């Protein structure tokens, strides 16, 4: 018969409890962190992974890009463009890659070349869809117009990320 010492058992269970979110993340098979977008025009962000946790704030803009930074069961911890974090149910997120223009107004080019024709000027805060990236330039769709924007000019893609 084994005798367990409280000083040994309590730290063991504490370590297991702390590892639970990373164990759940590994079960999805998807990388963490990764970008996603809000699937609904009303998304409650909670302080913890479950309905029993209070709501911190509510997003009211479908398609807004967010970064999934952790997973626990059916809940995803997200980070937004301002760096704020919270938990949302996975059903309120979409894998569709979206962007938000940052900084100043930026020209969106017909080709991935600053010498090509300017298709539109994108204002800060404008939302668009991310289509592909070569690591430096990304093809985006904004208000029905497709064009190329430098990856550093918007939120929604990692540095040097390639998307086909």
H/I helix tally = 1
CATH superfamily of the largest domain: SH3 Domains
Structural class: mainly beta
DSSP strand (E) fraction?
35-45%
Q: How much helicity do the residues have?
A: 10-25%
Give average pLDDT, whole number: 88
Instruction: State the CATH architecture of the largest domain.
Output: Roll
Question: What's the structural blueprint in terms of helices and strands?
Answer:
Layout: H1 6-28, E1 34-38, E2 43-46, E3 55-59, E4 65-72, E5 75-79, E6 85-89, E7 93-94, E8 98-101, E9 106-109, E10 118-122, E11 127-134, E12 137-142, E13 145-150, E14 154-155, E15 162-163
Antiparallel strand pairs: 1-4, 1-7, 2-3, 4-5, 5-6, 8-11, 8-14, 9-10, 11-12, 11-15, 12-13
Features:
SH3 type barrels; five-stranded antiparallel β-sheet; 1 helix; mainly beta; 2 domains; 164 residues
């Amino acid at each position: 018969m084994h005798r367990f010492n409280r000083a040994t058992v309590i730290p063991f269970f504490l370590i297991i409890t702390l590892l639970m979110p990373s164990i759940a993340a590994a079960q999805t098979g998807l990388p963490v962190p990764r970008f996603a977008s809000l699937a609904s025009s009303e998304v409650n962000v909670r302080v913890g992974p479950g309905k029993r946790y209070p709501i911190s704030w509510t997003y009211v803009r479908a398609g807004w890009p967010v970064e999934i930074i952790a997973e626990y069961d059916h809940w995803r911890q997200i980070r937004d463009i301002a760096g704020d974090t919270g938990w949302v149910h996975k059903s309120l997120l979409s894998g569709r890659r979206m962007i938000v223009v940052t900084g100043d107004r930026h020209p969106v080019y017909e080709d991935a070349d600053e010498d090509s024709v300017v298709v539109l000027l994108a204002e800060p805060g404008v939302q668009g869809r991310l289509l592909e990236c070569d690591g430096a330039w990304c093809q985006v769709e904004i208000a029905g117009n497709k064009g190329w924007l430098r990856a550093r000019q918007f939120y929604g893609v990692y540095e040097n990320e390639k998307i086909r």
